[in-house]
Design a protein that fits this description.
The chain is an alpha+beta fold and 75 residues long. The protein contains four helices and three strands; from the N terminus they run βααββαα. It folds into two domains: 35 residues; 32 residues, no CATH class. 48% of the residues lie in helices and 19% in strands. A hairpin with a 2-residue loop joins strand 2 and strand 3. The longest helix has 15 residues.
Length: 75
């Protein structure tokens, strides 16, 4: 979700609850200035969710290889 800095300040508690389920991007003058994330969700879990065929036992090395192979496909 994307919100303005004013909206975030005004409804801080609401966005603290929301961040448990999704990242919150804060904007000022139309530019993203911050990203609030749930500290209980690891980067590996986030990346795993973005991959099409991600098994539950995917590790950092596998993620790195997948990312590099996608990069090489586009170059």
């Amino acid at each position: 979700m994307t919100v303005t800095a004013t909206e975030f300040k005004t409804n801080f508690g609401k966005y603290l609850e929301l961040v448990l389920h999704e990242d919150v991007f804060i904007t000022r003058n139309g530019k993203t200035i911050a990203k609030v994330v749930n500290p209980q969700v690891s980067a590996v879990d986030t990346i795993r969710g973005m991959l099409k065929s991600a098994p539950h036992d995917l590790d950092l090395d596998s993620l790195r290889e997948e990312r590099l192979s996608k990069y090489e496909d586009h170059v």
